[in-house]
Design a protein that fits this description.
15 strands, 17 helices, alpha+beta, 6-stranded mixed β-sheet, single chain, about 475 residues, globular
Length: about 475
Amino acid sequence: MPDRAIRKLINNERKFLWSPGANVSVVARIEGNVPIDSLRSAIKEISQKHPLVSSKVGMEKNRVLYFIHDPEIEIPLVVIKRESETQWIDVIRSEFTVAFKQFEGPLIRFVLIHSESVSDLVVIAQHAICDGTALAFLIRDILLLTVTPQSPLTTIEPNILLPELLSKGQDAIRLGQRAKSFFIRRIDDKWKRNPFYFDDKDFLAIHDAFNQEYQYDAVLLELDKEKTSILTETCRSNGVTVNSALTTAFNAAFNDIIEKGVNKPRRVVLPYDLRNRINPPLGDVFCLLVGSIDFSFKYNKSKSFWENVGNLHKSIQSRIEKGDMFASAMDLESLDPTLVDVLVSFALLAKNVPKESIRYKKLNSFANDKNNVAIDLGTKFLDQLPKVINTNLGRLEFPKNYGQLTLKTMYFAPSGGTKVPVIMGAVGVSDVLTITLSYYHVKDGSPTITCSQLEQIRDKALSYLDLIGPQ
């Protein structure tokens, strides 16, 4: 193991490490004049509590990857003048085009959009080191450290490996058997007979190609305290969660706006934070610890909206009780790590690298290798993508006041996808619910979805939720 190694990367982290679209961002809107020097010091010190903030990736023989803590890594904080309420979207758009240097670090960046009365703190990270929940924890801890710089910091080691955690429960036995299925072993065997290995220069080639073709953007939905309360109470009275209601509303709205009323079963994918779904709970560890449930659901037009929400909610709860949110992660851990490295990156994007790229020959050879199992899996992956993904951090019970500063709200921009039309990033802070609908413009060619269509979907979903009039 390398010096200062934190631990090996698990496959769920390696899946994102080489993907140009695998960035995640959380934004905190802060009222009051943020003390920039104190904030800069807090960002520098916070890795004492969360080591992955000051980390890079190291590779050992047989391509084993480790997170390595490096306290000498300088974590950037860029300060710019605040000019608009939605300026943070421009910042994310720009930052998402800048590749993280996995083997040098850092794997996280900060931008403060500053004014003396209100500022937006934008945190952008490589998805391999964290999820949206982890970034929200990090912002809270940085704000606390900014106003109380002498606070002692207790390290929360991100050395938890998902397979080891799951082995403590009965579900782990079932899922472990599932993960060792003949199908997965067969995939592994095919890959080992015909592997392809890539390096950071190959990654920069697909990253550049990705950014030549796609551009990030977002449509916002913000529910104030009153509307958030109305939605919460309506869901409670119907015996469902806000998450179930949002998922149903946006899927139904997608059917209405994009599919022109065509009603058919839809694949529903819901990511879940696993920190508190494991016994004992893990608390506020900063790392990537997300599972998901995946099922088919058809909106029944002969029933009311809230009846449909109830049916979807029952499906969700049934899968949660069976521990299905662990299944996909466990299956992924059973694959050869070098195959996981390419599944949502090189297998999908190698074909887009232009001929003038110095890595074109290698990447084009891989993209056109029809006998390579990674290419086949990449094609199947695209065919199975859902139309709507709802990533909801839930209601975060964070302090509202930090000295003279007030946390007004947060915005969550999850890792985007070019083939998923609606990617929702929801988060509730200070009694306000925000939803960021992230998407990518296609610079040349037919877009997966347009800004106008997303705005129509947003408004139609609000209509289903009884928060605005019929659309």
